[in-house]
Amino acid sequence: LPRDTSTSGRVEAHLKFTTPLKIVFSSPDYNDLTLDTNTANSYLSVSDSRRSVTTRSEPQPYPDHPDRFTSWAQVLCRAGIAGRCYWEVEWAGSGGVSVGICYKNMNRIGGGSDCKLGHNSKSWSLDCINTTCSFQHNKESVAIVTPCGSRIGVYLDFRAGTLTFYNVSDSMILLHKEKTTFTQPVYPVFWVGLGSTLKVCSL
Fold first, then answer.
1. Segment 31-48, tens digit of pLDDT
2. Model confidence, pTM
C-alpha cells in the first residue's frame, strides 16, 4: 500500500498484513471520521461522540433537514474524501450492516434504489449479516466466499480509483477490491439493520 507522510498524518503500511493495517490519511478535506446527524435516518440513534450508531424501533427527535435519509436506516460521515484514507468499524447485532461510500448527491428522499447504499451508480457497499458478506454497486451484487467478522477495514485510494475491504482481526484478510473512476469526493456511509450497532474505531 502507498506510503504518505506529507502532512501531520503518518502511514504505517504493513505490506504482508501480518498485523492490523494502520493508515492515517493525509487528505486536507478529511479531518476525522464522525457521523453527520443531519443525514441520519430518524430511526438511527447516534452517540454523543458521533462515532457509534444503533437502529431503534422508535424514531428519534431529529429536526427536519434536507440531507436526512427519509426511508433507509443510513447515515453519512461529515467530511468527504478525495485522497487516500483507511478506516475501521466494528459492528454487532442480528440486523446486519452495510459499510461503504457514496457521492454527496445520492438521493436521500424516498425508499427507492436511488437512495439505498450500493444499489445505484453513486454508492458502493459491503453488506454484512452474521458471517456472510457481499459487495454491492449499482444493483449488481458480488458474493464473497470469505466469511466476514465483526471488524471491517476500508481502504480508499481516490485518485487510483480503488476501494478495498478487509476482515480485521490479528491479521488482514482481503474481502473485496473494486476498481472504478471516482468523479467527485466520496463520503463514508453506513446502513444499520434493526437490532444492530456500528462503531467507528479509533486508530
1. 468 999 999 999 999 999
2. 0.86
